Amino acid sequence: MQTVTLTPKRNLSISVEAENITPDTFAGKSAGEIGAITAWEGNTQITLADIFDIAVDGSGDAAETKIVIDGDVPRVKRIGEAMTAGEIVVAGDCDMHCGALMSGGTITVEGNADGWVGREMKGGEIVVKGNAAYYAGGGYRGETCGMTGGKLVIEGDALDYLGEHLCGGEIIVKGNVRLLAGVLNRGGTITIEGDTALPGGEMKKGTIFVKGKVLEMLPSYRDEGTEEVDGVTYRKYVGDLSCNGEGVLYVSV
User: Fold this and answer.
1) Which of 14, 88, 217, 240 has its CA 20 to 30 A from that of 26?
2) DSSP letter at 116?
């Protein structure tokens, strides 16, 4: 088992592109080797040692590697991008694209996550204990799918476009979600335990559960009466009929 602890040295005013902060990259490396890994701070190439104090305990492959970022890193992007195994814990906030394209392993963000957390993830699990910003679990500009697999859990609230272009996987939000959750969905499952507005716009396939209130409902859904799922009674709607969609929207009664 290998544990790598990254402690921020300074507050960052410019975002850092740090897609190399993954168990796959760190596995088996010493503190010096990890510190020499490059990143970009704006248009300046830096090393991880320029922004973190680094400590390594033990050794292991990617599946046996745990990375702990010991503090807020609200300007560090792409943490855990494309990781296949292992564990990352962010003991605070993080910037955009955390866990993007990941296919395995786990990420825990103990604070808030900025936009596109879990972008296009294929597998693994992300837990955000705070709030998530825009496009959580969605696809980036021009992509036809957001998540295709894996699980994203947001224990707080989420902003607009949660699960945009979702094609698979599962998203659970324990708080409220703002506008247009599941917009352009093609598969997968979204569960919102709080309130939301205008869910499922242009949804083709997939399932959305709303256990709170739908504050504003799209008119392009067909009401199919009530249905019980896992002991909970929902109002069942099918749509989005404006695009011949066959998605299912369950709203708690």
Assistant:
1) 14
2) T
